[in-house]
Amino acid sequence: METGKNELEKLYAETFQGIEPGSILRGKVVAIKEDSVIVDVGYKSEGIIPASEFHPSELSGLSVGDDVDVYVEDIKDVDGVVVLSKDRASKMKAWSAIESCMKNDAPIEGRIVGATKGGMFVDVIGVRAFLPGSHVDIRVVRDTDALIGEKMLFKVLKLNDKRSNIIVSRKVYLEEERLGKRAKTLEMLKDGAVMKGIVKNITDYGVFVDLGGIDGLLHISDISWGRITHPSEFFAIRDEIDVIVLKYDEESRKVTLGYKQLKPDPWTDVDERYPQDSKVKGEVVSLTDYGAFVEIEDGLEGLVHISELDWAPRPKHPSKYLTVGETVEAVVLKVDKNERRLSLSIRQLKPSPWQLIAETYKVGQTISGKVRGITEFGAFVGFPEGVDGLIHISDISWTKHIKHPLEVLKKGQKVDAVILNIEPEKERIALGLKHLTPDPWLGGIPARYRLGDELSCRVLRLTDFGIFVELDSEVEGLIYSSEIIEAEEPLNEGDEVRARIIKVDCENRKIGLSMKNVKRGGE
User: Fold this and answer.
1) Higher model confidence: residue 518 or residue 362?
2) How high is the pLDDT of residue 464?
3) Helix (H) / strand (E) containing 92
4) C-alpha distances in angstroms, 52 versus 21, 31, 38, 90?
């Protein structure tokens, strides 16, 4: 019996030689059952891993012959079965890797999986670690929930195997990385150097770019050769961009960057590429009250003034003609590369109504049209061709002194007028209302009003130098102040007075009157 017992012990020792509880072995899957996975760990023995230690997706993808790391939990002498754990093996390997990173001060990758009071949880090789809120980033992070699911590199600050306590820091890793990058950046940093950077922050006045441990300022004026309203039109945070160092102050570590300087200034030879009268094509990028800006190439914009949008004498707002993003053709009117101004015209590509006016109408011709506008100096009458002619206030009446055109005309009124002058090159047409009838000063007035004639007049205006009166509802005359007789009652506009003609000046179109020596009615 003693011999049999010794042989059994010898057989057991041979079977489980090298297998001890607490050891990690590499096994091969030999069978997959409903509640367990059978693994051959060598040494003439097989072990069992509960199926619950496998994720369903992992278990469904498992096949006989696959290798798997296992932890020896126990050896059952009676059944000769080795109890294994895949989870314990994974955790022990993870702890070993984490310990190694902490010992060697090396970074380790982890994925942020959740948030808690005072910090966040990080999955590091299958082991949960704690990331304090003060160690999430170099700067304060307002929205930590946005980081959940992100993979990042961390430094291990504390590791307690017994309590399964791991504390990691992203801040320490970033600071060390920044110092390393800064050293390399300083080696390359000099005026004129072209460098890659990451957009870190965007403000109204410019963009802060991380060059690798050192931040530089890209001012809004150095972003584009063309017009720019806000830096966000060109960049977004985290964009990787190329920039050129415009100035580096070693003492203050202040770095001034440029972006537009990476491309030639389009204004340098603009007068050669876009000479006067040349045709261009571009995109409408902005509309203002005074015109439209058209970009004809990157960084080069021209202005189509509102007066150059259409031949109409009073163009509407630019938005009535164009829309932002629209492609248009235009003619170059003027180029000033020193002032960086390019004047364009769209109407010059359209047939000129003034040329048509010159071909259709002649001086002396009578036209009909509606009054489209009235000013202190005259009234504008519309032509079918879309332009206006001006009736100057002095051309409204032969005989009456008109203080304002509104005394005779009103907007929308249809009138006849005579063309006095046509100047298509100056875009002007002069019209006359009084010219519809013969000039009474050339015959009618001298014949009707003679020196010495006495007549009744209506007071129009009282002035310091005399009284303007109306003769027969047609002609105006002036009773000189020296020829006025003081009445018992002061005169008012509209009163009737008797006066005698003492002067008829046809050349200057004036009639002078006197109240003296005038016969009263019945005398």
Assistant:
1) 362
2) 87
3) helix 86-104
4) 21, 15, 13, 15
Report pLDDT for 26: 80
Helices (H) and strands (E) in the chain, counts: 7, 30
Closest CA to 330 of 348, 346, 317: 346
Strand partners, 119: 116, 132
How far apart are the C-alpha atoms of 195 and 197, rounded to whole Å? 7
Distance CA 408, CA 46 (A): 118
As a whole number of angstroms, the distance between CA 323 and CA 54 comes to: 62
Domain 2-89 in CATH 2.30.30.240: no
To the nearest whole percent, how much of the chain has pLDDT over 90? 40
pLDDT at 125 over 50: yes
Residue whose pair of structure tokens reads 């097989």 in the numeric block: 46
Contact 495, 458 (CB under 8 A): yes
The torsion of the CA quartet 418, 421, 424, 428, rounded to 10 degrees, works out to -80
Selection from 174, 87, 98, 96 nearest residue 130 by Cα: 98
- Please name the helix (run of DSSP H) or strand (run of DSSP E) that holds residue 15, with its range, or none: helix 2-15
For 264-291, the pLDDT digits (tens) are 889 888 989 999 999 999 999 999 999 9
Q: Count the Cβ atoms, other than its own, within 10 Å of residue 324.
A: 12
Nearby residues of 23 by Cβ (< 8 Å), 6 or more positions away: 71, 72
Rounded Cα distance between 84 and 25, Å, is 10
pLDDT tens readout for residues 194-225: 999 999 899 999 999 988 878 899 999 999 98
Residues 454 and 520: beta-carbon distance below 8 Å: no
Whether the predicted model's global pTM rises above the 0.85 cut: no
pLDDT reading at 375 higher than 50: yes
CATH code, residues 440-514: 2.40.50.140
Which of the following CATH numbers is that of domain 353-436: 3.40.50.720, 2.40.50.140, 3.40.1350.10, 3.40.1260.10? 2.40.50.140
- Pairing between β-strand 366-375 and β-strand 378-382 as defined by DSSP bridges: antiparallel
Strands 165-169 and 151-160: antiparallel
Fold annotation for 189-262: OB fold (Dihydrolipoamide Acetyltransferase, E2P) (2.40.50)
Which residue ranges make up each domain of the chain?
2-89, 105-174, 189-262, 270-349, 353-436, 440-514
Report residue 260's pLDDT band, with 50, 70 and 90 as the boundaries: very high
Identify whether the C-beta of residue 98 lies closer than 8 Å to the C-beta of residue 110: no
| C-alpha radius of gyration, the chain, whole number | 50
CA 9 to each of CA 2, 165, 381: distance values in angstroms, whole numbers, following the listed order: 11, 42, 126
